[in-house]
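Readers of this paper often ask what the protein records in our data store actually look like. This encoding replaces a full spatial description with a residue-level series of whole-number codes. For reference, a complete record is included directly beneath this paragraph.
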Amino acid sequence: MTNEPRSKCPVRENFDPLSEEFLTDPFAVLATLPLEEMPVFYAPTLGYYVVTRHEDIEKVFLDNQTYSAAAAQLPLVSLVPEAAQILLAGGHKPQPSMVSLDEPAHRRLRNPTVRAFTPRRVNDMAPRIRATVDELLAAVQHSKPFDLVNALCFPLPATMIFSFIGVPRKDWDTLKAWCGSRATLAWGRPTPEQQIHDAQQMAAYRGYLRQLVATKVDARGDDFASALLAIHDEDPQTLTQEDISSILFSLSFAGHETTTYLIGNMIRRLLEEPARWDQVVVEPALIPAAVEETLRYDTSVPVWRRVTTRPVTLGGVDLPKGARLFLWIAASGRDPSVFREPEVFELGRSNASRHLAFGKGTHYCLGAALGKLEAQIALEELARRFPRLRLVEDQTFSFHPNISFRGPLELWVRAD
């Protein structure tokens, strides 16, 4: 496999999405790049080809024969041998879950997941989401500034997805910590020491989910894991218990990490121009549009990855077989050929839903409807309870050092 740039491909030597400058404000970096001239470029710091244009990223998502999902969750940097051995011993395979699989292996896991992840099961969660938001916000001491991430953005999605799956309440904090290690190991640049720690966490994470599935074999409930086991009972060889634990591995991470950051990004962007917040307070019907515009303007999943299965031309650049692609979804949301005045956060934007925040095609995010429902209800209740909510002035935002999941780690607000 080669990832060296071809002669026709521009090279950006200093493009580093894990640099402090990029983590702080990737859109400022984006604004400096001449993307009309170089919609695809090679980044030596990563060994990836960076794809920025909406049309090209959409094309990649829709062609899983040419663009394999195998790179989606592979560690961004080479692992030290000890960390790699810990992962293998813990059953964490190089292609660990549904989002990293191509057809037909992907379909074999996705079909039963879709059967169990029914619209009814998602819609039935709305009252529980609202009750959880009310409970979390009622606990806020709003007489003084508070961190909205700690108060709402962080606990809400974890509560929803872990209870949905069937994880006991006592284990939620442990799973949340494991998910943080997963983000660092697969999408960050951990030191060798951190790699070993995170690998140990991943082995424990995998082992826990296997045990959870085994326990539920004889203790079914009204939860997603039990619904998958019911499908397993129909044909144990088609959907094994190991398959079920792999599906839970995907959903237990994607079902909350992305939504935590989505809610944080949305509230930040509404509050940074108080008139936006005031408009939503007065016109709650705008709330679904606020969610979609956030997904376009400041998506919580700014990057995804693919690898070419054959030589191909993309964005005018000749790519070899085995070329690793850095699909800059956040850049596609600012593509002026698709979105008018893309630098403007516009609540009334008619085509905001054309964003690629949930992917497209066969790997389209299964939890998209649930994530958007949680964000909408969170905003509805916040606007109702705190109509004069404002950002605390002069705060500095910080972000987890990884390429694929982004939102403020703290978001200090005051209720006035």
